[in-house]
Amino acid sequence: MQSRLLSVAIVAVLAVPATALAAARPAHAPAVDRAIGLIDSHGPALHRADADAFLVRDVIVDRDGTEHARFDRTWRGLPVIGGDVVVHSRNGQFKGASQTLKTSIRPSLASRISSDQAIVEAGAAFGTGFDGVPSARKVIYARSGSPVLAYEVLMRGFKADQTPTEMHYFVDARSGRILDRYDSVHTAKPGAKKPGGGTTCSGTTSANGTGRTLFSGNVAISTQDCGGSFQMKDLTRGGGYTTDLNQRTNGSGTIFSDADNTWGNNTTSDRATAGADAHFGVATTWDYFKNVHGRNGIANDGKGALSRVHYGRNYVNAFWSDSCFCMTFGDGNGSTYYPLVNLDVAGHEMSHGVTSRSANLTYSGESGGLNEATSDIFGTMVEYYANNANDTPDYMIGEEIYVNNPSGTKALRYMFKPSLDGASPDCYSSGVGSLDVHYSSGIGNHAFYLMAEGATTPAGFSVTPAQLVCNGNTAAGGIGRDAAQKVWYRALTVYMTSSTNYAGARTATLNAARDLYGSGSAQYNGVASAWSAVGVN
Known about the structure:
- The protein has 537 residues and is an alpha+beta fold.
- The protein is 27% helix and 25% strand.
- The protein has helices spanning 30-41, 115-126, 271-293, 343-356, 365-386, 437-453, 481-495, 502-517, 522-533; strands spanning 7-11, 17-18, 52-62, 67-75, 78-81, 85-90, 93-99, 130-141, 148-158, 164-172, 178-183, 185-187, 205-212, 218-225, 230-231, 233-234, 240-244, 254-255, 257-258, 262-263, 306-311, 318-321, 326-330, 396-397, 413-414.
- Strand 9 (148-158) and strand 10 (164-172) form a beta hairpin.
- It is globular and about 65 Å long.
């Protein structure tokens, strides 16, 4: 069946506060104007309190004119954590809302502890070694249960394995209890500074270079002609550039420069090899999102991001950081792990950026697992999109980074049967949200695999179809990769919010399948049966 709806445009992010719902209504954004009017007239449906205000972040307009306006919420000037909402409408008529908040009740603004005391409580949880001065601001915490007054404490530092950490703690302003925590640095596997500097290039001409990569063979990469030399900057994809951190753990690094526009030698003996892998991976991910989903870069604003390689010493990880809008890749340890610059890891990290600029799934609990799953899903779809002969597409994450992996079956994660990693669950249970997000992601990964491929066993593995489902339904899912990836992307950008859990993800993907293929279609039913087959009903 042909797609019924496709998103064709995203209105640029507009920092237009709807203060007390008496917002400025920009003439160039009628969709925002209509959405704010609907918030004003449908307050109960949005659990709006009298002093709620809304800040529009994104608007998606479908070909049939349906509009989806995404808002952050404040109350009496305080951010409402978990209060974000997507307003759905057509022809100015309210069609519904996607949100987690379930009440218009708001807490007293009287606190019993000070911001300094909140920092002390967060510091006890963070431990020693924080970097700089911690900060605290008052917020309304509304990710679960009744909203409460809290302090959001931000502490920066480094973990024992050199990973930077930007921990957000939510401390109850009355009891001092830590309500929740998450890290805004999102890594490729379980357990940054603002960019600046680099060599200036006055050239404005794009050039076609050759990357002699470690994992993808010899590939074409787009670089910048500086007049007599070249830099690893992609002017065709928003100016994204790749730098060498030279084993440092801060700063932007030095942009790769070269005289002949050939980068690397297919081995780790040339520092530009890892740079070429990262540069190629990020460009391929850009092309995937643009050509498959119509998205123009991470933030959908046409701007490229920074990629940093050679981070730290023997660092076995890669990460996305919101604060520097950058991706960072470690070199591995040389004995067990290669540099973490393979294609699906690059796709994984860049997809964290896409999530941060759309649903902004909070990196804790079930929403954190869903965040990680989304990066695994799109990282895998990037691998299929590239269809590179040197990196055969599959549903394993990071299998290329292992130095000794002759059968190709060793991986960080296995989407078709997550428990093969020894820690991730195959089937949903109420305790999933307490796991590390890299393990709780197994539920989303498993559901997507079944959506796309059905209960089919990948080559090289001896598991049976019955062992790939949790409810015995070996006919679950199977709608194909093209439909599954489009359903997931639409669910992420149109229906999920920051606190969406797995039950909410089921609803979001069913809504997306309904929009794209029709309620009761084979795709809709396949999405439903895939979720049921992993225990999300």
